[in-house]
Amino acid sequence: MKLALHVAAIGVVFGDIGTSPLYTIRQCFDPAVGLKPTPESVAGVLSLVFWAITLIVMVKYVIFILQADNKGEGGVLALTALALKKAPPRSYLAIALVGAGMLGAAFFYGDGILTPAISVLGAVEGLEVISPAFSGMTVPISAALLIVLFLAQKNGTARVGAWFGPVMTVWFVTIGVLGIYGIIQHPAVLAGLDPRAGLSLLLSGQTRPLLLLGAVVLAITGAEALYADMGHFGRSTIRHVWISLVWPALVLNYFGQGALLLYNPEAIANPFYLLAPEFLRIPLLILATMAAIIASQAVISGAFSVTSQAVELGWLPRVRIRHTSARESGQIYVPQINAALMVGVLAVVLGFETSARLAYAYGIAVTGTMVMTTCIGFYYFRRIAGWPLIPVAALALLFFTIDMSFLVSNLTKVLEGGWLPLAIGFSLVAVMETWRRGRRILAEQFLDGAVPLETLLKQAADQKIQRVKGAAVFLTSNLDMVPTALLHNLKHNQVLHKRVALLRVSVADTPRVPLGEQLRVETLPNGFARIEISHGFMQTVDVPEALERCRTHGLDFPPMETSYFVSRQTLVHEHSSRMPAWQSRLFILLMDYALTPTEYFQLPPNRVVELGTKTEV
Prior knowledge:
alpha/beta; 25 helices; two-stranded antiparallel sheet; elongated; six-stranded mixed sheet
């Protein structure tokens, strides 16, 4: 059982970082960086790559960040939700944490667009190594593979996912063996293990240091996936797989490529494929393409998961989420996100055409998320985990300095493609903050004109309101006030059902809420009740199913006798709005495209009554 879990983790967690050898070393010797593959420069580059992987992936993520789990779940949003527990609401600290979490999530979407593009392009570029006749075919073949990948998302990964682990296991063993093959031919390359070689290269004046660091960072892309997928496989599994297989395979392959360059500098055209004997290059190309597709699949699934979490946290509008597996709750499909990612990825492939041109844009997306994780992680370890200030501050300063060095190095290439993840990131932050702020303003406006529930209960007790058969469920965000839909029902129909339930669906700050803690019921006089369904930000809720469990509390909601009342808001822009005009109009647009409560809460459509209201924002 443990072996099966380890193999599954290899396929899901390490695909992104596992395909980095396809392009990292080649990018370090890009003409713009200014390096030639001499013994000193090769040793320096390998030193920087080795210590970047060791310090950032091994020390920062595997040893430290994996300890910051939210009920077993990881990722920048889970970490943000955990950190917000100790931050006073609406304080500057809470605003900073939310901002960092939003930026981290937004950059992850940028990663979701760039990873499939750079991984598949990097793999398919091996065709040109095999035969010059394939020159010019890289882009159309890559685009075709990516279209098939995105169209297949609606079917889920339950079937093909079983192959991910074995394929990636073969991949890591293969690149490790190829690395050993190269090192044996030129063992002097192991001088790159000395950290002084990397520092000497940066200070030697032979290269443009920022551009070199911007290429080195490609070796640690995918480190965030180790943390984000912790909930699926557990901290122990990820650590064991990384230390026993992935880390050694990556290091061996990088040094094998470096050894190749020592005795054949011309191999810099594509050192990954040229490291392999000629008769193995076609099988290696096929394996690399499969690994790139698996890496792309993993990051696409991650984007679906981040979307689901952001919706439950109230940072994005409700979207349609489909579960593609009856056994794995984490296997979901979000049609709107899938379509947006496909358009974005194809545009990137057609616009950039090569993995080399994509490198700096990719680096910004990756390092942006890393910086946010470091900042939130510092707060977690100090205030929530209670670690001593000096060691926490020292570690945070070390990691922040490295992360920012990588981020700044990539920012030097903003005009050459780095603008793309920045545009994606800040646009998504604007969307998230607009949605969060708009929903808060609507809630405050509701409270301004709301009627206390006690007032309605007194009127019902005086028998001044006519009662009719059946049960009515009114969805609301505040159980102490009369829902708008209930007020409109009284105004227009002038009746109340014999059984009236005010229902609030709330999201906990934990990934999952146990079944026994999800339902809270309070029975009130005269047939009224207050019900709260609580779920984690990685769970979805089925309202009718939850109401069936109310029978244990003495309440019965027969499906054919229960009506659901929801308020449908029509928003219009008000000149005196508390939001800028552009933000107000954006919020109205987001509300128009958000999934209705009927669809999102899986209410039976033929039992739903929508009562419209007009609200100015």
